[in-house]
């Protein structure tokens, strides 16, 4: 379910678990242990957040995923929200709220921190009161928690400092009032995020570019998905040696780029696009080489 009338700064509200949110958690391929660590942190906060606030160092319910574009941070957060909601579903549903960080900056001195303060002290607690568990996703969190030490004087450093201060104070207030809330934040630039915000995170996970083994799994997964549409492609989807060879030519590809290169192979010429069952290993190698800049695109098959 998606709410049509949304509070300020909120771009989406959903109820989990929901069937149409299945997919991202299983489809995204990351190094071994990554999903287990994320899900363990999420379940601990959602299930035991209230009890843990009695500790001298309770969790903030904050997880930060950092890494270059295309490494699956947002997809992983979306999948984690569904997986965690499924894990705790026996105790009730989960509210998923998506925050648009770009809705807050303002040229008016003081307006940014007031809007941020409302988000953490009014909007999110009100959403958290609806159900036993709440997950909040904030993409590009550097737009909210700007690193104060490097605040640009081209904008308004005073407002930047106050807005970041409001985020930190709001995060502390949210933890105290709603210890069952899990906040998932992503950033492409860890160096742009304020150190005090990062220090509050229960888990900061760096997602680097995938190695050859992970790339081979991504390529295999993409071909398997293609084979569900065109079963004639299945031999390519089941050829592990082919996947490894293609991965070897995909150095410095991110996961998104590796998936897109499979579609690029199908789109190399109109004949193949019309009939993807004609896809061959040679087409895949050519597409990878073109994407890597090793060969010029062909005009016809």
Automatic annotation (TrEMBL):
InterPro entries associated with the record: AAA+_ATPase (IPR003593), ATPase_AAA_core (IPR003959), ATPase_AAA_CS (IPR003960), P-loop_NTPase (IPR027417), Pch2-like (IPR044539)
Cited PROSITE patterns: AAA
GO molecular function, one term: ATP binding
Keywords of this entry: ATP-binding, Nucleotide-binding
Sequence ranges assigned to domain AAA+ ATPase in this UniProt record: 59-211
The keyword Secreted belongs to this UniProt entry's keyword annotation: no
Pfam families named among the record's database cross-references: AAA
DNA repair listed as a keyword: no
Protein origin, superkingdom: Bacteria
Family: Belongs to the AAA ATPase family.
Full protein name: ATP-binding protein
Source organism per UniProt: Actinomadura alba
């Amino acid at each position: 379910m998606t709410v049509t009338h949304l509070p300020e700064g909120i771009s989406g509200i959903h109820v989990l678990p929901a069937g149409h949110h299945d997919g991202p958690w299983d489809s995204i391929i990351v190094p071994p242990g990554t999903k287990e660590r994320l899900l363990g942190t999420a379940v601990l906060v959602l299930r035991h957040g209230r009890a843990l606030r009695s500790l001298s160092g309770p969790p903030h319910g904050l997880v930060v995923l950092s890494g270059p574009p295309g490494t699956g941070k947002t997809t992983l957060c979306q999948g984690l929200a569904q997986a965690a909601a499924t894990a705790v579903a026996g105790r009730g549903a989960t509210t998923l709220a998506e925050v648009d960080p770009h809705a807050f900056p303002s040229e008016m001195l003081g307006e940014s921190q007031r809007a941020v303060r409302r988000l953490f002290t009014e909007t999110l607690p009100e959403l958290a009161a609806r159900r036993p568990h709440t997950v909040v996703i904030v993409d590009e969190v550097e737009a909210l928690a700007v690193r104060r030490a490097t605040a640009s004087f081209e904008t308004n450093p005073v407002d930047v400092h106050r807005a970041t201060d409001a985020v930190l104070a709001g995060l502390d207030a949210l933890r105290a009032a709603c210890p069952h809330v899990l906040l998932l934040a992503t950033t492409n630039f860890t160096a742009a995020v304020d150190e005090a915000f990062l220090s509050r995170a229960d888990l900061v996970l760096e997602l680097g570019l995938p190695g050859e083994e992970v790339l081979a799994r991504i390529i295999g997964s993409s071909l398997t998905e293609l084979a569900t549409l065109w079963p004639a492609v299945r031999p390519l989807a089941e050829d592990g040696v082919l996947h490894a060879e293609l991965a070897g030519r995909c150095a410095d590809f991110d996961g998104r780029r590796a998936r897109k290169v499979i579609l690029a192979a199908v789109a190399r010429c109109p004949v193949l696009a019309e009939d993807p069952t004609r896809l061959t290993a040679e087409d895949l190698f050519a597409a990878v080489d073109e994407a890597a800049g090793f060969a010029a695109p062909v005009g016809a098959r």
